[in-house]
Design the sequence.
């Protein structure tokens, strides 16, 4: 009887789970198995459809070896990685927003919502009085009242309104947001270019008035800044090696950070791509060898992967900063000649050089107030207040409190956000590019996910598209393993 009762309960449980299991098998497990099978075949809609039935050929690793020589695949992989350059700035913005919201303290004012509601009523009353077709001054008045409402409500409600407003882009439908930003980026009537054109006119006048300052001073300042940043980074790596805080894996990863922008600079200056990569890798290997060959004064006890998570997060921030400084070196000498004709706001989505930065700016705007800010707020709330109290007793400045308490305690959160951001960057980009640029101009905004779509559903090469999708899965899987391995370490690691 007990056996029959146990079987009956098991069958009842399976019956309740059956719809979920059936849905998982029908829409997830079976498509995954079919896509894995298609990755090793030459499945093509043009040769296998209702009008033509060519036999399916097993090509083995042919689709994967084809990727190695497909210039379009490497171009789209480069586009995907380039669009992730904005990730460190989005992380920094999320951290800054979290710090600002966390500093808005004090007891919550119970009259705050009432005062905010009263201010909104006044704004609505002004709108009613102005009726339709209000003049421009009335529009600015309305926006001023609404801005004052947000400021007042945010302060009196201990930042709750601010947190809601920062998080609102996360709830906005993606396609609607992309259409709105496409209007903002319009080359003639977009608000962004209308605001940039007067500023660019003033910059053109300044460059024409002081050409030497920009043609010579800007490259020198960029080079000096880049050398200073690299020197600080290498000295920091050496100190961490001496203190047994970084293993050989962390040293190699940290040395690759400055080498990647160096390779792009050499390629921009005319050195062939393979030679630029070889010089950059040689410089990284030399730096890692010089640091790791130093004897440790405090003993050799250190795991090979110690401190790797921190170096990965810092490398993501170091690469774009160095890229900006080196861009000053490249662009500076040509500024006086370009200023003679006057600087003009770019055709953001129609120009090859500005399409990717336009998408990066929009992505950073959406990422600053998203889940990253919430994660940082949670991390800040978990920092023991005793650490800050001890720092205050020792007379630590706000900068010292941040670099010695806040930032180390947030290292696991930062590493998690960085890895998840890279994973999302590898997987995303399709809706954004499809809605705003259709992958153009000249394929400059086509990402790997868009490449999978075009290969599978526009050209019909499902076998090749499946192979690309599984390569993308392998990249994401490696990053996920990295996150599982190092993402849960404590802040003192």
Sequence:
């Amino acid at each position: 009887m007990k056996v029959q009762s146990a079987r009956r309960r098991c069958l009842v449980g399976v019956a309740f789970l059956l719809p979920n299991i059936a849905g998982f098998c029908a829409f997830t497990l079976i498509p995954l198995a079919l896509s894995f099978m298609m990755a090793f075949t030459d499945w093509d809609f043009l040769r296998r459809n209702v009008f033509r039935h060519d036999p399916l050929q097993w090509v083995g690793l042919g689709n994967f070896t084809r990727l190695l020589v497909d210039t379009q695949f490497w171009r789209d992989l480069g586009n995907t990685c380039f669009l992730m350059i904005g990730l460190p700035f989005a992380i920094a913005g999320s951290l800054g927003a979290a710090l600002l919201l966390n500093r808005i303290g004090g007891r919550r004012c119970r009259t705050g919502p009432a005062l905010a509601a009263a201010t909104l009523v006044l704004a609505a009353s002004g709108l009613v009085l102005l009726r339709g077709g209000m003049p421009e001054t009335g529009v600015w008045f309305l926006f001023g009242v609404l801005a004052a409402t947000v400021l007042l409500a945010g302060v009196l409600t201990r930042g709750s309104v601010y947190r809601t407003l920062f998080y609102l882009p996360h709830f906005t439908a993606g396609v609607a947001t992309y259409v709105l930003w496409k209007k903002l980026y319009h080359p003639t009537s977009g608000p962004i270019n209308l605001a940039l054109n007067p500023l660019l006119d003033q910059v053109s006048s300044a460059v024409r008035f002081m050409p030497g300052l920009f043609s010579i001073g800007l490259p020198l300042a960029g080079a000096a800044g880049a050398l200073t940043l690299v020197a600080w980074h290498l000295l920091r790596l050496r100190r961490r090696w001496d203190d047994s805080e970084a293993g050989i894996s962390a040293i190699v990863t940290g040395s690759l950070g400055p080498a990647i922008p160096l390779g792009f600079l050499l390629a921009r200056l005319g050195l062939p791509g393979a030679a630029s990569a070889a010089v950059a890798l040689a410089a990284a290997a030399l730096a890692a060898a010089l640091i790791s060959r130093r004897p440790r004064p405090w003993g050799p006890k250190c795991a090979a992967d110690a401190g790797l998570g921190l170096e990965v997060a810092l490398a993501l921030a170091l690469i774009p900063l160095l890229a900006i400084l080196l861009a000053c070196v490249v662009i500076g000498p040509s500024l006086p000649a370009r200023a003679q004709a006057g600087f003009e706001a770019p055709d953001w989505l129609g120009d090859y050089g500005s399409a990717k930065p336009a998408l990066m700016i929009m992505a950073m705007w959406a990422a600053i107030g998203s889940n990253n800010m919430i994660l940082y707020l949670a991390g800040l709330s978990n920092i023991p207040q005793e650490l800050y109290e001890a720092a205050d007793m020792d007379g630590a400045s706000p900068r010292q409190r941040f670099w010695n308490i806040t930032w180390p305690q947030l290292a696991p959160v930062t590493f998690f956000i960085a890895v998840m951001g890279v994973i999302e960057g590898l997987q995303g980009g399709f809706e954004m590019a499809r809605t705003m640029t259709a992958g153009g101009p000249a394929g400059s905004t086509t990402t790997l996910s868009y490449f999978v779509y075009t290969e599978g559903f526009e050209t019909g090469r499902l076998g090749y598209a499946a192979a690309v999708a599984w390569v993308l899965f392998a990249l994401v899987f490696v990053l996920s393993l990295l996150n599982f391995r190092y993402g849960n370490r404590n802040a003192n690691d």
Notes: Confidence is low (pLDDT under 50) at residues 106-112. Residues 94 and 149 are 23 Å apart (CA to CA). The first helix runs from residue 2 to 38.
